[in-house]
């Protein structure tokens, strides 16, 4: 049986249907999860999708972070379940302190939607193992608050421990410290990034197919475990 | 160097979606009986002394740039340096 | 103390501020006649707002009727709903229907650019939602004053941030639009917004209240004092001096609330528990109650005390007129009310039963236990005044038309042509718009097959069958100024062509008619001519008008905007994988021009950029040719013939070459046909032309297709190499590095806005 | 009913793109010698009296929700009702 991968819908989630589709195209079973339920419905991995949960009011992800489903997610992540936060999902993971640092308003101070080049800096996560170390990929980036910030100590530790998973190339689109596009937790199972791999799985609608590997990576990881 | 603070708030009759969302979230977190409106706070380090003239300049700047007076009101005041990072 | 019906009967001669509310003496008289007494102040509020130009279309109604008289048949079947509904609905096959509409939010966007544009998007999205459809995309035709005008630096970034801020937050891909600059828009920016939605046939919902005893539910945001600056005259009549005075005329949007409203409403539709539904837009509750009741088979009773308020000091008049955003009204059978409430609760959407459908034919509204409104709803919603405003061809029209561009100095050498190319691509109207469009999410929902800067936006509707729709909006106001009849047809033809070029079959249109003051006979003439042009055009093309919007009074003192009838065309494509993009793809592909080029430079981008000139007669329109050209494009696309296709419009052939080249940094070498005037060939804006590229060796197939469609096809060159050294060459004339063109093309908007 | 104000400011070492942009814009408008940092101001109408306990609740709410203490510091204080819309 194909592994079941959950995608959480918060009020204001937008790319949940895209994430579910990407999971399906990769060959796993997509499972919609609702933020207000305090259950992960037995899934083996979870994606927090992009969007404007709670309108991005207050701070992106600040309100969703307290949704009932998050308690379960925090527990599961602690136990090693693969979790991917995309854009708003990344922001929620930071607010929930599953990942260090925070995301602030783009330095250009406008919403930015573009096809963004980035480099895969780590293949040692369940979400990036299908890439080549150092591979250049193009992934859709679209957000207003994507500037990754953290204090110097945290940044040095992320770099030192190989936890910068993706780095922007050919120009920093939002003022992220050290061109960081995505990071992982210490164990590597929780990954957050601003660009949207789920928009890069269909040649008809995305600028590349470079997003596919995110989903096949985790599928392999989960299948190997079984 | 002195600090002037400009507080900018949505006018009371104007919808404040952010404040509404925060109010709702506080309620869900168990903080009851709190109604929130959300605005902006600008801390301006002004070179030199804060004369009346200088303050008037800040007021003009607030009117022109910091506040959208169609939907926001603002308030300018000199602040005796409070400590950063109180908590 | 509210002004009740009883009170109105007792004080028949009380003076009322009808003039301040914008009513004419005879209009006020008619209200008295209808009611057989003086109106209460709540009734006066309702009538005044519903009989305003904006809501009643009183100046345009007689002309708009001509749209309804068009055949309601599209090239692929009947309309499921037409003009008069919130938005028209088109059967696109496979059990799917599509609804779309354009609206304007011009004036609010001038006052408060961000919120004006944001609430403009919010409003049109609710129109689509009210039809039972899931909104799936938006477009934003925008017009501003000169790019270098200080006020443009205020209005443009605000409007763009507002369109993006609202649409992005709703998760609706922005798939196209326009950004146009002209001095007449300086005090009158145009912010038009289009939304498209999709539904299954069985989910179609119409706005009507039927079935006595059915509950009327108001849901969404609470009601505040938004957008009721005008009725404060009533408030001041009915309240003490210390009563509420300050009412904002600016509405603030809450896109998050709207997103919840969308999901909640779709779930309600899914559950099949609503018998009528209406969005609250302009005129708020006045409009929703009177329209629902008027379209139904009974009356309606509403208790205003039940309306959830954001501001407890609101008077009944104000509650009735509030334009608070993000609200909807539904009519629900009593046994479904619980289920309805449950769904609202799930989405954290406030919902309140505020009244019910009644026997009889009155709209009754109570406040504090007394009746403040007792009217026949039709007289409010549908039987407003109708004006036959005088119109006359302006005396300057001849002068403008005889001031042809023939005498303007034209570039002649290759070097001059090259300079002209660079000047043109760096002009505000032809330059790169990605500073704007990069602020819009075009990927969300994962069905955007084509989006800006393509000729049309295209959305996949069904992933299994690959059914999709394409949309384009267009209008060249300069052409419409020179000849509003032809200008409207040129707008129609361009949008129609853009859709066909993408590979979709154009089936229906929506329009947004932006004009100056209808009280000026010249403007009224432009308006009637534009409508005549569209009606004749739609007849010729077989595309019905499904709905639209009129925006008058876009005028600064005596100066009206260029007449701007924006046309949106919807097309259907059975297989979106066959769509045609605009960018050159493969070195060695043949480049052909379809259509005929004439010396048509009046109103052109060149005349504006090189000479700041606007005079003469616009390019000729041949709708029969447009139809044959469209068939050629669609047939070619289905057969997989085109590598790329790009319609020729502003800036003519050079602009199309530049855009097709820059799309993927692929060069091109053009050999001008024997005997043509290079300048005219490169810069004329003759309509009905498309630049295509196709794999070497498929010329015969193209020629056969073109011959069948009686479309002129001319081989004009070959696609060059890609990469940083790519060039655009016109043999015997000039050669320009794409990088140099790109630099000139990308600079203007960021430079002007200081970012 | 009383008003408690929570001011939230980006920590000094954290990039403040908005403040930076405002500073730049002020300079271009001819307001020289002003350096701006931009934060948020929350006005909270608290039901009942503002006891120490109630204030402590607001502090908790600020810590938990209103500020992200990874990048922001905050300050809580009771405000004697100032007049809205000073200008
Ligand atoms: N405000 C806007 N929003 C979204 N897309 C836009 C906007 N303005 C222009 N575009 C897109 O940019 C492209 C070029 O616009 P335009 O030159 O008007 O195209 P055309 O002449 O082919 O109609 C089109 O894809 C159009 O949809
Ligand atoms: Mg156009």
What does this structure look like?
The complex is a heterotetramer, with one copy of chain A (226 residues), two copies of chain B (87 residues) and one copy of chain C (755 residues). Chain A is α/β, with parallel strands linked by helices and 226 residues long. Chain A has five helices and eleven strands, in the order βαββαβαββββαβββα. Chain A has a nine-stranded mixed β-sheet with strand order 2-1-3-4-11-10-9-6-7, with helices on both faces. A two-stranded antiparallel sheet of chain A has the order 5-8. In chain A, α1 (16-26) packs across α5 (212-225). Chain B has a single domain (2-79), classed as Phosphoribosylformylglycinamidine synthase subunit PurS (Mth169, Chain: A, 2-Layer Sandwich), CATH 3.30.1280. Chain B has a three-stranded antiparallel β-sheet with strand order 2-1-3. The radius of gyration of chain B is 16 Å and the shape is elongated. Among the domains of chain C are: 54-71 and 103-381, Phosphoribosyl-aminoimidazole Synthetase, Chain A, domain 2; 414-431 and 580-755, PurM-like C-terminal domain (Phosphoribosyl-aminoimidazole Synthetase, Chain A, domain 2), CATH 3.90.650.10. Helices cover 36% and strands 23% of the residues of chain C. Chain C is built from 27 helices and 29 strands. In chain C, α7 runs parallel beside α8 and α8 runs parallel beside α10 (255-271). The chains are: A alpha/beta (226), B alpha+beta (87), C alpha+beta (755). Chains in contact: A-B, A-C, A-D, B-C, B-D. Chains B and D meet through β1, α1, β2, α2 and β3 of B and β1, α1, β2, α2 and β3 of D. The structure holds adenosine-5'-diphosphate and magnesium ion (MG). Magnesium ion binds at residues 178, 474, 649 of chain C.
């Amino acid at each position: 049986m194909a592994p079941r991968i959950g995608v959480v819908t918060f009020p204001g989630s937008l790319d949940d249907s895209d994430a579910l589709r990407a999971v399906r195209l990769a060959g796993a079973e997509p499972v919609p999860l609702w933020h207000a339920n305090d259950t992960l419905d037995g899934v083996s991995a979870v994606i927090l999708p992009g969007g404007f949960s709670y309108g991005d009011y207050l701070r992106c992800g600040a309100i969703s972070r307290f949704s009932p489903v998050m308690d379960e997610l925090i527990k599961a992540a602690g136990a090693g379940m693969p979790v991917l936060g995309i854009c708003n999902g990344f922001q929620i993971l930071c607010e929930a302190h599953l990942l260090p640092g925070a995301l602030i308003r783009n330095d250009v101070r406008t919403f930015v939607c573009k096809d963004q080049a980035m480099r895969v800096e780590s293949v040692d996560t369940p979400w990036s193992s299908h890439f080549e170390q150092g591979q250049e990929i193009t992934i859709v980036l679209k957000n207003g608050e994507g500037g990754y910030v953290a204090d110097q100590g945290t940044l040095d530790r992320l770099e030192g421990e190989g936890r910068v998973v993706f780095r922007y190339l050919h120009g920093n689109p939002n003022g992220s410290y050290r061109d960081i596009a995505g990071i992982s937790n210490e164990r590597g199972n929780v990954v957050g990034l601003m660009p949207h791999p789920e928009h890069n799985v269909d040649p008809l609608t995305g600028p590349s197919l470079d997003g596919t590997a995110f989903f096949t990576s985790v599928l392999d990881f989960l299948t190997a475990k079984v | 160097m002195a600090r002037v603070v400009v507080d900018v708030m949505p006018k009371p009759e104007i919808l404040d979606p952010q404040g509404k969302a925060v109010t709702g979230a506080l309620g869900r977190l168990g903080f009851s009986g709190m109604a929130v409106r959300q605005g902006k706070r600008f801390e301006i380090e002004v070179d030199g002394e804060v004369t009346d003239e200088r303050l008037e300049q800040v007021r003009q700047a607030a009117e022109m740039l910091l506040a959208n007076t169609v939907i926001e009101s603002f308030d300018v005041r000199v602040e005796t340096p409070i400590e950063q990072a109180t908590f | 103390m509210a002004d009740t019906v009883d009170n109105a009967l007792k004080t028949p001669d009380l003076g009322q501020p009808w003039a301040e509310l914008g009513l004419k003496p005879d209009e006020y008289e008619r209200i008295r006649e209808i009611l057989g007494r003086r109106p209460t102040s709540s009734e006066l509020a309702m009538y005044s707002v519903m009989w305003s130009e904006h809501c009643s279309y009183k100046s345009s109604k007689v002309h708009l009727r001509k749209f309804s008289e068009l055949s309601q048949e599209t090239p692929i079947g009947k309309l499921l709903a037409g003009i008069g509904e919130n938005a028209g609905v088109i059967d696109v096959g496979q059990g799917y229907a599509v609804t779309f509409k354009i609206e304007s939010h011009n004036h609010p966007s001038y006052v408060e650019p961000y919120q004006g544009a944001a609430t403009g998007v919010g409003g049109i999205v609710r129109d689509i939602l009210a039809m039972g459809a899931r909104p799936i995309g938006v477009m934003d035709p925008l017009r501003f004053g000169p790019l270098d005008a200080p006020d443009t630096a205020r209005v443009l970034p605000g409007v763009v941030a507002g369109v993006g801020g609202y649409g992005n937050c709703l998760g609706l891909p922005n798939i196209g639009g326009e950004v146009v600059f002209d001095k007449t828009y300086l005090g009158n920016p145009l912010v038009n917004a289009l939304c498209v939605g999709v539904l299954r046939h069985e989910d179609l919902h119409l706005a009507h209240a039927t079935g006595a005893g059915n509950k009327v539910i108001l849901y969404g945001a609470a009601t505040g004092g938004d957008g009721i600056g005008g009725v404060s005259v009533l408030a001041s009549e009915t309240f003490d001096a210390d009563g509420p005075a300050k009412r904002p005329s600016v509405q603030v949007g809450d896109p998050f609330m709207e997103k919840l409203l969308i999901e909640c409403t779709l779930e309600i539709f899914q559950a099949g528990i609503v018998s009528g539904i209406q969005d609250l837009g302009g005129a708020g509750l006045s409009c929703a109650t009177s329209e629902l009741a008027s379209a139904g088979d009974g009356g309606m009773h509403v208790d205003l005390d039940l309306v959830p308020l954001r501001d407890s000091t609101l008077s009944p008049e104000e509650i009735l007129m509030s334009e608070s955003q993000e609200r909807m009204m539904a009519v629900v059978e009593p046994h479904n009310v619980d289920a309805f409430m449950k769904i609202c609760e799930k989405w954290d959407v406030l919902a309140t039963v505020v009244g019910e459908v009644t026997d009889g034919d009155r709209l009754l509204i109570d406040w504090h236990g007394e009746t403040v409104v007792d009217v026949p709803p039709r007289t409010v919603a549908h039987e407003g005044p109708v004006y036959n405003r005088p119109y006359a061809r302006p005396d300057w029209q001849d002068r403008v038309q005889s001031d042809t561009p023939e005498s303007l100095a034209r570039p002649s050498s290759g070097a001059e042509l090259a300079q002209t190319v660079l000047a043109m691509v760096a002009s505000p109207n032809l330059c790169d718009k990605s500073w704007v469009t990069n602020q819009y999410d075009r990927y969300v929902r994962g069905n955007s097959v084509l989006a800006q800067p393509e000729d049309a936006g295209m959305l996949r509707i069904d992933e299994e069958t690959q059914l999709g729709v394409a949309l384009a909006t267009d209008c060249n106001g300069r052409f419409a100024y020179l000849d509003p009849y032809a200008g409207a047809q040129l707008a129609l033809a361009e949008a129609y062509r853009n859709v066909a070029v993408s590979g979709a079959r154009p089936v229906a249109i929506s329009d947004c008619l932006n004009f100056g003051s209808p009280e000026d006979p010249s403007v009224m003439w432009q308006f009637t001519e534009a409508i005549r042009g569209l009606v004749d055009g739609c007849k010729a093309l077989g595309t019905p008008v499904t709905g639209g919007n009129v925006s008058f009074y876009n005028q600064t003192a005596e100066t009206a905007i260029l007449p701007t009838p924006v046309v949106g065309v919807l097309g259907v494509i059975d297989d979106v994988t066959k769509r045609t993009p605009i960018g050159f793809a493969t070195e060695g592909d043949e480049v052909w021009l379809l259509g005929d080029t004439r010396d048509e430079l009046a109103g052109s981008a060149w005349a504006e950029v090189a000479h700041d000139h606007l005079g003469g007669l616009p390019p000729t329109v041949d709708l029969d040719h447009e139809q044959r050209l469209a068939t050629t494009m669609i047939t070619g696309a289905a057969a997989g013939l085109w590598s790329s296709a790009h319609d020729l419009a502003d800036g003519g052939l050079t602009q199309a070459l530049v855009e097709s080249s820059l799309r993927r940094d692929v060069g091109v070498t053009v050999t001008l046909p024997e005997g043509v005037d290079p300048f005219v060939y490169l810069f004329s804006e003759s309509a009905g032309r498309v630049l295509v590229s196709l794999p070497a060796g498929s010329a015969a197939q193209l020629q056969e297709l073109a011959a069948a469609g009686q479309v002129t096809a001319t081989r004009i060159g070959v696609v060059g190499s890609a990469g940083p050294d790519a060039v655009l060459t016109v043999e015997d004339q000039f050669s320009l590095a794409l990088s140099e063109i790109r630099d000139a093309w990308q600079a203007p908007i960021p430079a002007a806005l200081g970012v």
